[in-house]
Structures are given as structure tokens and as C-alpha cells.
């Protein structure tokens, strides 16, 4: 049986003079969640933004897409996530990844290690974080982190914890996600450390199915039921119109993809409302992706997407 659709928004900041009204509007429109990415520059701090959002809403889930494991020690992440889980009454979706944006590292004077090293750190951090949610004391001696008898992150009831969301595009991180995550973001690989015109091509349908396969391998290797995992997709371009041939042609030229690949790529939702709904239903059937997150910075688009896509598909 297909998992029900959920829809979320990603924002880098909120209007300072009316941020609480904006967040409440997101909730009223039927969106399930609000996410903030984790980068340097003028965007808001993700922990501050999502904690504030949780404080002024009742049902909206809040999370990160995603914390870079290298920017905060796992002990800090464990405590922040457990605290937010409690103050939000269980609405925190704790997103974490191995890091990818090289310019962040360079600007902050941090070492940008090769992907394998960053994924090793992510795996170790997850062990520490999960233990700190579950146990009164945690000790860990790994290659990258050493923790000795650290206290529980917060007083969580037995079995209570934030949902874990891991995003990634390569086999190692997606198999790790299959072992550990409740929600897995199916992302493009970005070995260059930045988004390039060719990035989207890593999410053509056959590549998406391969990536989902890596998640399944990780889950089955850990003795988990793959069906327990919710698959997530982050959308970069939404264009709701009856005629999007010009847009698809322009995107195809800039990415080296065909127009039919643009129409099917999860990073782009273009077409009439009926066409987009049909695409999402087909994508869910073929890949299992049911949790769609779009960019939330333009309210006109957010409102129209809620009216024409979110409500018909999720019933919210």
C-alpha cells in the first residue's frame, strides 16, 4: 500500500517583522513541515528558526535539511534535538548529513575532507546521538569522536526520540540512511562541492531508482523493513502553468538533460496542476517517494501549490 503524501517547505529565513504570522500561514495551508538548511551566509540559524516556528504552531513539524555534521559536535546536536523534541511535543524531524558545500568550509576556515571521511564522521556521530537519546550515560571511542560517560541529552521516555532524516546522493550515505533513518532524502550527488548545471542529471528516473535501491540494501542489511522508511525529495523549481515548454527547454539547455527528463526529474515540478499531481503519483508508485518539500520563500507560489497540489493529494 502506498504511503500517504506529505508536503513540506524549506526556507532560509522568515520576514523579521511578521515571522510568526508567516509560519502560522504555512500550517493553515496544510503543509506538514517546515525545514531550514544549514549553511553559512545571511540565512537564519536553523535551530533558532525551527524552534521559534514550533513555539507558534500546533501541528507543523519542524526540521533541518540538513545539519552538516562538521559544524557542530554530536553532543551539541543530540542535546539540541532532544530539547526541541520535547518543547515541540514530538514534532522535530532531525535532519543530518555528511556535508557537501565546499564554500562553507573554506569561508569558515574548516578542513574539507574527502566524502568518505565525512561519511565516517556522520556514522560515528549518529551512534553518539542515538545513544544519548536512549541511555543515561554514553561512552564512545571512535576514529573521529571520543565521548566518556556523557549524560543523557534530555529526559526522554523510553523509546521516545526525534525522527531521524538523513539526506544523501551516494551509495555509502544512502546505505547508512537505510540502516539508521526514519526519513531518507533522495538527493543528487555533488562531488564538486557545489551545485553545477549537471547536478540535476543525477536524478533522472533510473538514477533515482538506483539510489532508492541503496537505501533498501542498507535497511535489509540492518534487519529493518524497508517499508518503514519514508522517502523524501527536495524540489528546487516549481512552475504551475498550462504551458511550460519554454521553461523546460531553457532548463534542458542549461543542464544537458532532455525536456522529457526535466519533466520527470524530482528537482523540478513543472506543468499544469493535473500534470504535476499525476507526476507525483507516478513517482510515488515507481520509487516510493511520498514526502515532497518545496522552496517556501515566495508566498504566491506557496499558496497556489497548497491549493492545487497539497490539498488534492494529501487531503489537508
Could you write a compact summary of the structure shown?
The protein has helices at residues 19-28, 46-55, 74-87, 102-108, 115-134, 171-180, 205-221, 245-255, 259-264, 273-287, 299-314, and strands at residues 6-10, 33-36, 61-64, 67-68, 92-97, 137-141, 146-151, 163-168, 183-186, 230-234, 237-240, 268-271, 289-295.
How is the topology of this model organized?
Elements: E1 6-10, H1 19-28, E2 33-36, H2 46-55, E3 61-64, E4 67-68, H3 74-87, E5 92-97, H4 102-108, H5 115-134, E6 137-141, E7 146-151, E8 163-168, H6 171-180, E9 183-186, H7 205-221, E10 230-234, E11 237-240, H8 245-255, H9 259-264, E12 268-271, H10 273-287, E13 289-295, H11 299-314
Parallel strand pairs: 1-2, 1-13, 2-3, 3-5, 4-5, 5-8, 8-9, 9-10, 10-13, 11-12
Antiparallel strand pairs: 6-7
Descriptive notes:
The chain is α/β, with parallel strands linked by helices. It has a single domain (6-314), classed as TIM Barrel, CATH 3.20.20. Helices cover 43% and strands 20% of the residues. The chain has helices spanning 19-28, 46-55, 74-87, 102-108, 115-134, 171-180, 205-221, 245-255, 259-264, 273-287, 299-314; strands at residues 6-10, 33-36, 61-64, 67-68, 92-97, 137-141, 146-151, 163-168, 183-186, 230-234, 237-240, 268-271, 289-295. It is globular and about 60 Å long. It starts with 5 loop residues before the first strand and ends with a helix.
